[in-house]
């Protein structure tokens, strides 16, 4: 997993995989980490942020949470689907 623009995109992998990537990023490269997720992965994004701030990187805190709804177009049916999204900003 690589990070672009300090952004960690959460998907279907185990939560601890994302925690490890986020921790490595915060310890070495940057003071800021943005965790993004959509739909069913939102709970995993919250888990990653809480594990990072409470267990592994106690000097890191949550600076902001942004909730949104994104509209995606289904290529097969050409219908609009609305999907919830979250963006959590962590900073040293």
What do these coordinates show?
The radius of gyration is 14 Å and the shape is elongated. It is an alpha+beta fold. The model has no long low-confidence stretch (mean pLDDT 91). Strand 3 and strand 4 (80-91) form a beta hairpin. The protein has a 4-stranded mixed β-sheet with strand order 1-2-4-3. Helix content is 32%, strand content 38%. The longest helix is centred in the middle third of the chain and has 15 residues, at 42-56. The two termini are 22 Å apart.
Topology:
Elements lengths: L6 E3 L5 H14 L3 E7 L3 H15 L4 E13 L6 E12 L1
Parallel strand pairs: 1-2
Antiparallel strand pairs: 2-4, 3-4
Helix pairs in contact: 1-2
Summarize the structure.
By secondary structure, this protein is of the alpha+beta class.
Question: What level of helicity do the residues show?
Answer: 25-40%
Which consecutive residue ranges, at least 5 long each, have pLDDT under 50? none
Mean pLDDT: 91
Oligomeric state of this protein:
single chain
State the total count of DSSP E strands: 4
Shape: elongated
Strand order of the largest sheet: 1-2-4-3
Number of helices, where a helix is a run of at least 4 consecutive DSSP H or I residues: 2
| Major beta sheet summary | 4 strands, mixed
Question: What is the H-and-E element order?
Answer: EHEHEE
β-strand percent reads 35-45%
- Roughly how many Å is the radius of gyration? 14 Å
What structural category characterises the helix and strand content?
alpha+beta
Tell me the span between the first and last alpha carbons.
22 Å
